[in-house]
Each structure stands twice: as C-alpha cells, then as structure tokens.
Amino acid sequence: MLEQHPKDPAERHLIIILTFILLLFSLSSCSDTQTRVGLVLYNESDPFVYNYARSIEEHAQGVFSLSRADSGNSQILQNEQIAQMLDQKLDLLIINPVDRLSVYSIIKRQREMDIPVIFFNREPLLKDLDLWEDAYYVGAKAEQSGRLQAELIMELFGNDPRQLNRFDKNGDNVIQAIILKGEQGHQDAEIRTSEVLRIFHDQGYAMEAVIEVANWESTQAYEKMEQIAKTFGTDFEVIISNNDAMAIGAIKRMKEAGFFTDTNGNGRIDPLDELWVPIVGIDGISEAVELIEYGYLYGTVLNDSNSQAQAVVELSEYLLGLRKEQEMTYRLLDDTYVWIDYKVFTLD
Ligand code: GAL
Which end of the chain is less congested by CB atoms within 10 angstroms, N or C? Predict the structure, then answer.
C-alpha cells in the first residue's frame, strides 16, 4: 500500500517539526523514568531513618525513579523485598540493612545479578563489602560522634578533670552518668558508647556510668527512665544518649516526674534552674532541636542525614553512568566508602 505523503510543503514542515519535538521529549525523559532504583529501609518508624529516606527521595527527584520498601525491622522480610527487586531487574539497590552482619548473602546475590548495591547507616563488615567491587557504603564515623559528644560534656563540666564545676552536683569530682545505649551490635551504639567512656578516661575524668540499652527507641528509653528514677532518684549528673530519640523518651519521663522546673519563669529550662539535668543526644532531628531551644536537651551531635542522602544519590548517579566521579560532592574512598562529618549542635 502506498503511504500518503502530505503534498503541501508547509504541512510537511509542521510534521517534521512535531516529530522532532516528540523525539526530543522522549529522549529527555528517559534519563529519569527509565532508570529504576530500589530503596530498602530497615525500619521506617525510626525517625532518623525516616528523615534520611525523605532526603534521598528529594535528591533523587528528576534523576531516577525510586521504589521504596520498609522492612519493619525484619531481616526475613527484607530478604524477600530485595529478592523481588532483583527479579524486577532494577538498576541499583540502596539498602539500609536490618542486620548489618548478614549482608554477605545480599552482596553475593547482587553480584550474581550484576546489580550494584549501596548500603547506608548500618555499616557492613569490610570483609563482606570486599566480596564485590560494586558494593559500597555511605555513612558517618561513629568514633567522631562519640568524641564530639564527650567534648560537649567535658566543656559543660568546666574542661578541668581535677576540678569539676557546679554541674558536679554532689561535689565528689566524679561524673555520675547514665548512658542510654542504642541497639546492641550496631556500630553506632557500640562505638559511641565505648568512645565516650574511653575519652573521659584518657582525659583524666572520673566517671561512674550506668548503661541502659533502649534500642534507639523513645518509648524504651521512657520505660528505662522510670526504673532509673526509682533507683537513683535525682542522683545523676548527666544523661548521655546514643541518639536523640532515646533522649526525647527520657526527657518525657523526666518532665512527668518533675525533674525540670522553670525557677525564674522565663519559659525555658536553663542551667541556672535548680533541677536542671544535662542531657545530650546524637542525630539533630527536628524534635531534638526544638527541645534544645526550650532548654530540655543540652545539645546534640548532628548526624547529617541530608548530606548523607545527597552522597547516596550522587554515588548512585555515578554508578548508573549519570555523573562523573569528579562531579561528586563527597569523595569516594578506597572505591568503597563515602564518609560525612558529624557536627556539634547546641543553642550557641
Ligand atoms: C544511627 C542513628 C540512630 C538510629 C540508627 C539506626 O546512626 O543515630 O538514631 O537511627 O542509626 O540504624
């Protein structure tokens, strides 16, 4: 059958122009909609991880399409979610593992399917990451957060281990501390706790610490605080929390138990108030920042999820051939790691 060509040259021109526009349109849209990336979270109800995931989505907008899955703190469920994404032949997976020590089998499957994988927030062992050149980790050094937290507290107590200031309430020159610890075995919980203790010790401070595990969770910290208050009353001088969520839970319980009073009526709880107890966290989530503004939380260490999310997205772009390595804001080290710095956050 003969094709019917428009005879009129103006009509022909119009068709050529329209075809060209259509072609341009389809080419420009293929960079974002056709590249499909999976984002798997260990537990969306963790406020830090929730914000982190939102930032990843924001940075990825218009760059690639993202399918998100929440593993609800179950490694079994997470394995199924990953298997499904691999079956769908997504181009890359971004994984926040439930059990950071069991990524060995995840990496092996990714390698078999030749689909690169970026882990974040829960750090796999180097020997597992070393299984495959296309396995990466984006995170922040837990040691640094422990050190910054310790420095914040030392400064509060006057920076002189031989003579603590008035925050040593009972004047015994020993800091009585409660440490709220995150999930056992998590690199951040283990290292933040041991670093704080080590630094105080190395700097010559005497410290008596009671460690309570509250698994990163506000409600668990609230319950633990109930016990602590029964056992110690107000006989402790600082609460060092591995994260903000647990500090927030402790503050909630302490508020109810009358640990804070606004003696000068200025609407804030401040160090001059009789019953002030310094509490420090880590993460810098918005609720914590608000509590710092009202004086309930002394300070926190910013675990910069927005920069980490940006690093995750830029590394993804690099692995997908959408960005050159030199164009990444944060450097890729040893072909495996991107590290983002922590920062101290107080009212000052
Ligand atoms: C830590 C963070 C915690 C918790 C944990 C989950 O880095 O400080 O609040 O979110 O990750 O893996």
Answer: N
